Amino acid sequence: MSAPVGPAANLDLRAGHPPILHSDGGADPVGWTAHHRNEVRQILARYGSVLVRGLGLRDHAQTAAVMSRLTSSGLLPEREPFAPRTQLGQGLQSATPWPASQQMCLHNELSYVPDPPAFIMFACLTPPAGGGVTPVGDGSAVLQALPPALVSRFEQEGWLLVRHYNDDIGASWAEAFGTGDRGAVEHYCRGAGIEFTWDADGGLRTRQRRRAVVRHPVDGRPCWFNQVAFLSEWALDPDVREYLVEMNGPDGLPFTTRFGNGEPIPEDVVAVINQAYDAHTLREPWQAGDLLVVDNVRTAHGRDAYEGDRTVVVGMGDPIRL
To answer: Name one GO molecular function term (predicted).
Structure first.
């Protein structure tokens, strides 16, 4: 199905795929984006995501300029990463480091910070030889697909992100908080509602309780908005998890998630959440120069396993207070 959108583009709506907006902006992608900004934002508001094809994005500076045109306040720096991204300039970042052979399950970016980005954007500069799709899933549909009793518990309790910053895996606390000053880290944690304790060897342990279900700030629809499954210990490679538990004990994992009352979330609950995501996932293979714009509150995203080289860069914009 195809619908006209302005004089320079068409919108393709196909079952199982995100909306694809075909542009003729390859000669001047920054100018095209500035001119069609409202159209892109309207499509995003209606469908929760849109893949813009035909911009021919080729380099970091051009891509950062295009992404900035779609935000209200420019691109945002990342905070509290679990795996540090490479900063590429002007707010543009590399994709999250994650083994190419492993699936990255759907999640909402930075759902554990007090003011997460309203939008997250992905640009493909080099498509992989196979796989590597950035799937998206509607958080309202996922919420409806989950067992009511499980949703009710998460609505009442929220979820906990439990982290142990050490030298084994993931970001150090200095990388996550952007400073090696303990006092500055403690000040940030107090302001963000994060409980913290320091280990004798200098490691840092944190716990932050967040809502798992939120209402969209524009249309008020309830959305499954969290990283309960993605940051679960059960998302780790089984061999890696076994090694980390053996070395550090079950409380020494670099990250895991729990119910809001502190109880562990079993592996089968994580599987149920991922099954709901799978039932409401849209996919479109990357082409060089593509831009995917995602409403971060309404729509979760992930990453399929892939083969060959893959260069996808990321920008986030417009922080919102939930």
So the answer is: dioxygenase activity
